[in-house]
């Protein structure tokens, strides 16, 4: 959608959420365009980490989710633009150009009028238990919700199985979860994983 535009250069592309931040570190883009639903690490978590590590990076979300909860969470985690999948390539280009110019962008039917309302809500939302999770606990949460075993998670994150178990126990306690089913339901509600995973 962006290649071939004379004023835009695509400097990289990845398919797994765990690959995004290393690519940003290596390529130093002005804008990061990402989907909310990615394997490995959710787009929302990538947003949160990218905003923290690269405060000047402009963040554009492309998502199939039009409900307020997803938009609010994306804005709260640093997105400057939220584009609905199905909107067309011209809208993605428009969103990228808007954030490069320092503006915010929301796809219709989300509407420009809603931007200020979403931002105010995002800034006023009380912190929840998820905010208490460490970055590693969030990674373990996502990979567990995606169905990976503790051993598989350990291999993906280059940590020991015992460390995975420790993070898993900690996140269960912080979130008040009792079972794998609770974890999956929680991940679905938060938009960490989608129904297709």
Report on this structure.
The structure is a single chain. This protein has 197 residues and is of the alpha/beta class. It has two domains: 17-124, 3-Layer(aba) Sandwich (Rossmann fold), CATH 3.40.50.2300; 129-190, Arc Repressor Mutant, subunit A. Helices cover 51% and strands 9% of the residues. The protein is built from nine helices and four strands; from the N terminus they run αβαβαβαβααααα. The chain has helices at residues 17-27, 43-53, 68-76, 89-100, 113-124, 135-145, 150-157, 161-175, 180-190; strands spanning 31-35, 58-63, 81-84, 105-106. α3 (68-76) packs across α5, α6 crosses α9 (180-190) and α7 crosses α8. It is globular, with a radius of gyration of 17 Å.
Question: What layout of secondary structure does this protein have?
Answer:
Layout: H1 17-27, E1 31-35, H2 43-53, E2 58-63, H3 68-76, E3 81-84, H4 89-100, E4 105-106, H5 113-124, H6 135-145, H7 150-157, H8 161-175, H9 180-190
Parallel strand pairs: 1-2, 2-3, 3-4
Helix pairs in contact: 1-2, 3-5, 6-8, 6-9, 7-8
CATH class of the largest domain: Alpha Beta
How many domains comprise the coordinates?
Answer: 2
Number of helices: 9
The radius of gyration over CA amounts to 17 Å
List SSEs in N-to-C order: HEHEHEHEHHHHH
Binned, the helix content reads: 40-55%
Distance between the termini: 25 Å
CATH topology of the largest domain: Rossmann fold
Widest beta sheet: strand line-up: 1-2-3-4
Q: What is the global morphology?
A: globular
Which segments are poorly predicted (pLDDT under 50) over 5 or more consecutive residues? none
CATH 2nd-level architecture of the largest domain: 3-Layer(aba) Sandwich
CATH superfamily of the largest domain: Response regulator
């Amino acid at each position: 959608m962006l290649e071939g535009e004379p004023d835009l250069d695509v400097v990289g592309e990845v398919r797994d959420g765990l690959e995004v931040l290393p690519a940003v570190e290596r390529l130093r883009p002005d804008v990061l365009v990402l989907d909310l639903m990615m394997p490995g690490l959710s787009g929302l978590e990538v947003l949160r980490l990218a905003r923290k590590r690269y405060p000047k990076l402009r963040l554009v979300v492309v998502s199939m989710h039009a409900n307020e909860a997803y938009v609010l969470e994306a804005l709260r985690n640093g997105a400057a633009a939220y584009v609905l999948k199905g909107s067309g390539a011209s809208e993605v280009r428009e969103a990228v150009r808007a954030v490069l110019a320092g503006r915010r962008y929301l796809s219709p039917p989300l509407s420009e009028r809603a931007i200020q309302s979403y931002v105010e809500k995002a800034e006023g939302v009380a912190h929840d238990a998820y905010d208490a999770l460490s970055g590693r606990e969030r990674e373990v949460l996502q990979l567990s919700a995606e169905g990976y075993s503790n051993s598989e998670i350990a291999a993906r994150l280059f940590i020991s199985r015992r460390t995975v178990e420790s993070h898993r126990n900690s996140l269960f306690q912080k979130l008040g979860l009792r079972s794998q089913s609770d974890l999956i339901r929680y991940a679905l509600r938060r938009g960490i994983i989608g129904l297709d995973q």
